[in-house]
Amino acid sequence: MVLSLLVVAAFQWPAVPVDSCPPASATPNAPAWFDFQVDRPARVAKTAATLPRPDASRAERPPYSADFALVQFVVDTAGVPSERSLKILMRPSGLSVDAMKAALPRWRYTPAVARGCKVLQLVQTPLKWK
Questions:
Q1: DSSP string of 11-67?
Q2: Across the chain, what does the average pLDDT equal?
Q3: I need a surface site. Which of 5, 41, 47, 82 has the fewest CB within 10 A?
């Protein structure tokens, strides 16, 4: 009888909803999600006119051209790319690493959403640099 009361009491105890989003301050060390793991992936929202910049029109095409550059970085819950996470996966000889690092802070994304919460996402994007 006592055990059944404890079980009933446990299910009636007020609890934090499972799908509630953590505060933004709790996410800096959270792992980044991949594109296929989120409900709504991060997408380019606004970029500076400065080149290089993300090229959404080339995102679905294979990287066969000589002017192709591909970078990877984490987009945070505010839509800002993390400079620490920048990795250059492919780079043509005419595009400097310094130019990519200088342009990254100006890029803006809509944050990725998973289970109704904004999450960090690992993004790979081609660059327009000419």
A1: HHS----TTPPPPGGG-TTSPPBPGGGSSB--EEEE--SSSSEE-GGGTTS---STT
A2: 76
A3: 5
